[in-house]
Every structure is written in structure tokens, then in C-alpha cells.
Amino acid sequence: RSLKQIYDPLHTILVHVDRKAPEAKQDIDSFIITAGMVSASTFSAVEITQGGNDLLRATLLALKQLVAEGKRRSRPWRYFVKLSEYDDPVSSSQALQEFLWIHDGLNFIG
Fold first, then answer.
1. pLDDT at 89
2. Which residues pair with 13 in a beta bridge?
């Protein structure tokens, strides 16, 4: 549901799926293909364990992958938005784009 809510073909979306959940990754991959989400993809590089640093590791691996991809783009990345399975966007993708455009160049770390 969150993926449909935030998807925009102008954005790159990278979803990490726990390496212990290959069926979930297949389901999300199938959804992405069926929905025609050409700028979304998944990867499974980390087994997430409670209380460990696995989420941080998955985030850093995602950033590494996105930075490498960003170097091949004609326009560099402007923002990185990290959502977890517990996050439910309260605004549309369009509203987020407008907010970031208005506050261009600022960081929102909290």
C-alpha cells in the first residue's frame, strides 16, 4: 500500500526485503511489474535481526547502490527519503515533492 502511495515514475524507489523472506520479495517484485512501476526495484542483502545493526547495514547498502546509480543519471540525487515497514506516508507524493521544492537544499533529519 505504501509503495503505491509514494510511487512516482520520476523517482527511484529501492525496497530492501529481508533476505529471510524470499517469498515476500517475489510478491513485491511481481507487484512492481504488474503495476508498471519502472523506477522501483527490490534487493535482499541483509538478514534483519531484532536488536542488531542490520537495518543500518541495509540502509547503507541501499545508499551505496543509489549513489552508484545516481552517478549514471543526468541529474544528481537531491534527496533521500527512508521509510520503514512501520512508516505510513501521511501526504501524497506530490505534496512531498512540493514541500521539498519549497525547502530546497535543507536537511530534515530528526
1. 74
2. 40
State how beta strands 40-43 and 13-16 pair.
Answer: parallel
Residue 23 grid cell: 517469498
In terms of Cα–Cα distance, which of 7, 65, 73 is closest to 34?
A: 7
Q: Write down the residue that cell numbers 501524497 correspond to.
A: 92
pLDDT greater than 70 at residue 1: no
With beta carbons less than 8 A apart as the criterion, state whether 48 and 59 touch.
no
Cell numbers at 64, concatenated? 551505496
The pTM score is 0.79
Q: For 13-19, what is the mean pLDDT?
A: 92
End-to-end CA distance of the chain: 25
